[in-house]
Structure formats: structure tokens, C-alpha cells
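INTERNAL AUDIT FORM
Audit reference: QA-55
Scope: verify that the stored structure record matches its stored sequence.
Auditor: D.O.
Record contents follow.
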Amino acid sequence: MSLGADRPEILVVSSTARFRSLAKRIPQPSDTVLEIGCSSGGTTRNLIKSGARIFATDNSRTFTDQLREELEDTPRVSVHHVDGRNINELVRLVAAPNLIFIDIGGDARLDHIALQVRFCLLAYRPRLIVVRNFELAWVTSMTTLSEPPDEHVDCFPLLSESDDLTLETLLELSHSANVNNRIYAVRKLLGLEAPAAAERIAAMRHDPEARVRRTIERIDGW
């Protein structure tokens, strides 16, 4: 696959106002939009105005239950309780979105938002990804030179259905600097029967964060 031919455009903003403005202006009725981090639905309502097919997701059941009830009679939108880190579940929900809007917290750490974008690029080839995140916007605003790799280099090869997307993403999360990401990975890895998962869990029994170690002990009984 040529990276140049299938390379999505990525827009990074820091403010909620700009993010929601783009949600109102960019989608077309023919688009399929995946929204990761819909929260209480402020951006979702703007996306709906475009007439596009909207799949809104969030890791808070409280938010998704409330928003689903509010929008139950609204056509072409569905609300789902899915954690953005569970990329397999997102792929089952929507196979090929051509627009992705990501807001998992404007103050989310850089490594957290970068992993979310990476997972989306491994699973999808949208034409555009719009991200709201303060640290990522700050870093990109300081970038004065960006040299892309050669066109024949594909940094994010699409993982097919035959690839173990779950294991791939969980192993990456298990190395995150974000403790909550590592805890999430531990919980999911413990349910996988794969040598790589068992090997990583064995290493994480010595994780420097006590909460990670306690999670393994509580679930695994070790």
C-alpha cells in the first residue's frame, strides 16, 4: 500500500469551539462519521446537522445512555458505549468511516491521544481525522519542519481481519506512560490465550505502579 495514495489528512485543534465548528462544516450527507469521545453530545449535535451517518461513542455509559435517549428519534445517528481503546469493537461497529472526530479529553496526555490516533490509522483509512487535544495542538504548533517518509514506506499498514488487532493494540497500551491505559491493557490481556499476552502479563507483575500490580493479583488470583 502506498502511504501517499491513502494518507488521511489530520486536523488538530485545542478548543472545543473550533472542534465543534469543524463538526458542523466538514461532513457531507454522503459521509460516514465515527465520533470517539462524544461525552454529553455537544459535538454530536453539530455532526447531525450535516445529514451524515453518525456513529457516536464514549467510554461513559452514563453519557451514552443519556444521549441515546435524547436522540432516539433522530435519523442517521446511533450512540454506543465503546471505549476508544477497544479498536476491535469500533471496527465491528463501523467498518469504514471516511471521517473520524476524536475528543477523548482536551487535556488527555500526549501519549494517550497519540495511541488513539495510531489505532485508528491501523484500523481505518478515512479521508480526514479531526482531533481535539491541547498537548498535541501545542506540539504541532511548534513544528516548523516536517519531513514525511518516502512514499513506499507505510508507517501504519492496515491490519486486516486476519491480523490480531486486539493483541497488537493491547500490547501497545501496556507500555503506555498512562497508568489507566496500562490497567485497561492488563484487564484485557488477562482474557487472551496467547503466548505474547502471557509474557507481557508476567512482566507487568513487576510494574512500578502498585495499581497495575493489584489489578493483576485481583483478577488473576496470583
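Auditor finding: record pair retrieved intact. Confidence is low (pLDDT under 50) at residues 1-5.
Action required: none
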